[in-house]
Design brief:
CATH architecture of one domain: 3-Layer(aba) Sandwich
Strand order of the largest sheet: 6-7-8-3-9-10
Shape: globular
Strand content: 15-25%
Structural class: alpha/beta
CATH class of one domain: Alpha Beta
Order of helices and strands: EEEHEEHEHHHEHEHEEHHH
Mean pLDDT: 86
Helix content: 25-40%
CATH superfamily of one domain: P-loop containing nucleotide triphosphate hydrolases
């Protein structure tokens, strides 16, 4: 029997009262945040707000002084970064890490085999594995990379390299995806490639994106969370965030004024 009508949505990622101090300064100050299946959330804030520290705490790169992180009902606060990836919490990094001579097909196949603990068999052998090939091509098609699947990574456009990075993340079968500035360094003409790819991600995947491009953020997000001085000062819809006086003062400023006049 399914859940009753009106039942609360189950949190996929639940961060409770997270705190991290550096010296006497609370860089992450009692932060709580929930993501449910299908969420599309943008995390924004001024430089020094604590966004990177928060993501490093969630992914296990840093240990909190207080608070907890739960994934799909499991307390993963003490889990290693690799254990969190295995559990379905995956982060893409701002700097693309690709092998210049390998093709997108080889990259994704290697990632799939690593997930299965079979990475030693990648070169040549993977083409004889129908299940690996089928999933590789499915992921490449999802991100519109199937047309360049056989080209070396160093010969494709930078925007397509960023898409390939997301493809590698998808090969890890995430439940929650943390996107760290997916369009950073991408020419404006290629930004639409990133946006279209994000629109095609699985509907039940929860996505938290950090980005400074407010137009991109407002097109992507159904919910916006604003950090300032290590604390959440706003959690609501894109329509509401630009009208919030605390957010205007701390971060958006002239951008919010421009939107109100548009």
């Amino acid at each position: 029997m399914g859940p009753c009508a009106g039942a609360p949505v189950m949190s996929l990622l639940e961060v409770r009262n997270l705190r991290k101090n550096f010296g006497g300064l609370a860089v992450t100050d009692d932060v709580s945040l929930n993501l449910a299946k299908g969420d599309r959330v943008a995390l924004i804030g001024p430089n020094g707000a604590g966004k990177t520290t928060f993501v490093n705490l969630v992914t296990g790169q840093l240990k909190p002084h207080a608070g907890s992180v739960h994934l799909d009902g499991e307390d993963i606060t003490a889990a290693s970064p690799s254990r969190r990836v295995q559990a379905g919490l995956v982060r893409s990094f701002q700097v693309t890490r690709l092998f210049s001579e390998m093709t997108p097909e080889e990259h994704v196949a290697l990632a799939l085999l690593q997930k299965q603990g079979r990475s030693g068999r990648v070169f040549g052998d993977y083409r004889g594995m129908p299940a690996v090939m089928a999933e590789t091509h499915e992921i490449l098609a999802l991100l519109n990379l199937d047309g360049i699947a056989q080209q070396p990574a160093n010969s494709i456009a930078y925007g397509q390299q960023r898409l390939l990075e997301i493809a590698l993340v998808m090969a890890l079968r995430p439940k929650v995806l943390l996107l760290d500035e997916p369009a950073a360094g991408v020419p404006g003409s290629d930004t639409m490639l990133i946006e279209r790819a994000l629109e095609r991600l699985p509907g039940d995947l929860a996505v938290l994106m950090i980005d400074h491009d407010m137009d991109f953020v407002f097109r992507f997000a159904r919910r916006v969370v604003v950090l300032a001085a290590g604390a959440i000062i706003f959690d609501g819809t894109p329509a509401e965030v630009s009208r919030d006086p605390r957010v205007r003062e701390a971060y958006l400023g002239s951008y919010a004024d421009d939107r109100s006049q548009a």
